[in-house]
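Lab channel / #folding
Pinned by the channel admin:
"Please post every new chain as: sequence first, then the structure tokens as a reply. Keep commentary short and put observations after the output so the thread stays searchable."

First post following the new format, from NK:
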Amino acid sequence: PAPPALTHRDSSLCAELAPPSIVEEAAAAAARDDLERGAGGGWATAHVHPTLSASASLRKGIDEALLHDERTDRVIEGLTSNLFVVDGGNVLWTASAAEGAYLGTVRAAVLRLAKVSTLFADVVERAPSATGLRDRDWREAFLTCSLRGIAPLSRVWMPNDQEWAELRTPTPGDCGATGALATLLKEEMRRESEPIRSSAMR
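Reply from TO:
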């Protein structure tokens, strides 16, 4: 069944745990079509996107589907994005290449900035668990991709539980780790673009 309609929308996004059958269907399609695979034999979002889109897993009010492998209880990534989760111990989690994560450029930048910052107690390249989401141990979560940069998640629909898991999102008075990391990323992108702008003006 579809999740209930949202009563309001803000600048953050909503996601849904994709059914295991969708994950298996996508992996099977990638293997059948002999598409490029992720490191360690995992499948990558970029290659299974058509299969997932055809499944109509994205419903009204849902911005992104999170790929959940019930065999490992791990939530790998989004349909078109990488997933990062900050847990209750202020540890940042994201899936590794061996687990099938797509190695996006924004993901790499976020990992680099997170590791050199003092925002987190630790940075772990391992997919967060769905059990952690159900137990409300996902304090913050955000998606990364080239179009959105860093996009905070405000809630995740859990089909098995038939309820939303609400997450902390940045506010004007409290940006949280997600907002602080987004600021660092914007500053780095601005610094990297300055030489290009300067050359264009000559």
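NK: Confidence is low (pLDDT under 50) at residues 1-11, 34-58.
TO: also worth noting, DSSP finds five helices and nine strands in the chain.
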